[in-house]
Amino acid sequence: MFRIVIRRRLAGLLAAAVAAVALTAVEPAPQAAHAAACTDTSGVTVVVDFAALGGGVQVACALGDPATGLAALQGAGFTVTGTSRWGLAFVCRINGKPTAATEPCVNTPPVTAYWSYWHAPSGGAWSYSTSGATSYNPAPGSVEGWSFGAGAPPSIAAP
Q1: What is the pLDDT of residue 34?
Q2: For 33, what's the count of Cα atoms within 13 Å in the CB-facing half-sphere?
Q3: Is-contact 141 40, C-beta < 8 A?
Q4: What is the rounded (10 degree) CA torsion for 104, 106, 112, 114?
Q5: What's the pLDDT score for residue 8?
Q6: Region for 44 from its dihedrals, namely left if φ exceeds 0, alpha if ψ lies in -120 to 50, beta otherwise
Q7: DSSP assignment of 86-104, as one string?
Q8: Given this model, what pLDDT does residue 127 score?
């Protein structure tokens, strides 16, 4: 009886571990990205500000008409990791930052250290997103912004 209980518990733990790994798996980024702002309405420009993590700002183009902000981020060539609890519905890491040692990505990170999500018209002012990246549909010619920290917009103007 004791062995059966142990086996069931081990099987349950193994299933939970597999599910957690599947939810935080990094989806491959599409290959049609350009390492510069999009021209006109050729796609959605994506700005990712890594400054709070010791990096710079990267700008890339997701060609075409990505269906969601997440698709634009991935289409611009960025790798994305979600949380164990929410999957890719909550962006926890972009290009491996912050590191797993800093943020384990189990649940939502604290409000002082998360990827905030922004929108802007080309050359316009940043607006904090009231929608999640999986439910927002950016228009071609627009700009998507991501900034790590306490909710400040990207440190550069929208290209």
Answers
A1: 63
A2: 21
A3: yes
A4: 90
A5: 42
A6: beta
A7: TBTTS--EETTBS-TTT--
A8: 98
Q: Which two tokens stand for residue 96?
A: 């491996």
Strand partners, 60: 46
Cβ-based neighbours of 57, under 8 Å, separated by 6 or more: 47, 48, 49, 50, 51, 154, 155, 156
Residue 110 CA, chain-centre distance (Å), reads: 16
Q: Residue 92 is which amino acid?
A: C
Both tokens of 139, joined, read 């228009």
Quick: pLDDT tens for 44-97: 999 999 999 999 999 999 999 999 999 999 999 999 999 999 999 999 999 999
Sign (positive/negative) of CA torsion 18, 90, 139, 34?
negative
Q: Are 66 and 30 in contact (CB under 8 A)?
A: no
With tokens 């939970």, the residue in question is 16
Q: Are 12 and 20 in contact (CB under 8 A)?
A: no
- Split at pLDDT 50, 70, 90, the class of 35 is confident
How long, in residues, is the chain? 159
